[in-house]
Amino acid sequence: MPMVAAEARTARNVAVRRARPDDAQALARLATALGYASSAEAMRLRLQDAEGAVLVAIDEEHAAVRGFAHVQRDAGLLATPYARLRALVVDECARNRGIGASLLAAAERWALDAGLHELRVDSNIVRERAHRFYQRHGYGEHKRQCVFTRKLA
Questions:
Q1: Closest to 13 in 3D by CA, of 92, 93, 97
Q2: In the chain, what is the straight-line distance between the N-terminal and C-terminal CA atoms, in Å?
Q3: Measured at the alpha carbon of residue 42, what is the angle toward residues 36 and 48, in degrees to the nearest 5?
Q4: Binning pLDDT at 50, 70 and 90, where does residue 52 land?
Q5: What are the residues whose beta carbons fall under 8 Å from the beta carbon of 13, sequence distance 6 or more?
Q6: Any idea what DSSP says for residue 138?
């Protein structure tokens, strides 16, 4: 699988790198703030099992994780393999500083390095601010769909 540069310079005073186990607490905090409740231990386990790349944006001035992105390869019988952005979260206190754009660019680089020439993003219908963000970065709406779930015993 492709590697992201050990560390890439991005938005002012922010570096993007691969997530490490010691980032789990910050990732859990960010996921919870977005509405996906998680503990540090659960996030640490998910990081171990994550396919693709989990990237973090580090605010160098405060040595703090300000956002993360998870991108992975997706393939099936109905489409040519592509990259899927599974998550992109920026800390509320750090928005509008280019961090999301830096994470998105790093995810795109990862996809290209993996030989994937399409990046797909799923975004909840209620996240209109996120939709505008993706549109500003050249993404167009492809389709709308319903997601059905069933808890299995």
A1: 97
A2: 34
A3: 115
A4: very high
A5: 59, 60, 61
A6: T
- 79-90/119-121 β-pairing: parallel
Boundaries of every domain in the chain: 8-136
- Structure tokens given for 149: 């779930």
Answer whether residue 36 shows pLDDT above 80. yes
**Residue 100: strand, helix, or coil:** helix
CB of 17 closer than 8 Å to CB of 55: yes
Give the pair of three-digit tokens for residue 61.
């001035």
Q: Give the model's confidence band at 10: pLDDT under 50 very low, under 70 low, under 90 confident, else very high.
A: low
Q: What is the pLDDT of residue 94?
A: 87
Evaluate if pTM is beyond 0.90.
no
Band of the pLDDT at 133, cuts 50, 70, 90? very high
How far apart, in whole angstroms, are the C-alpha atoms of residue 81 and residue 92? 33
- Does residue 143 register a pLDDT over 60? yes
What's the CATH number for 8-136? 3.40.630.30
One-letter amino acid at 50 equals: A
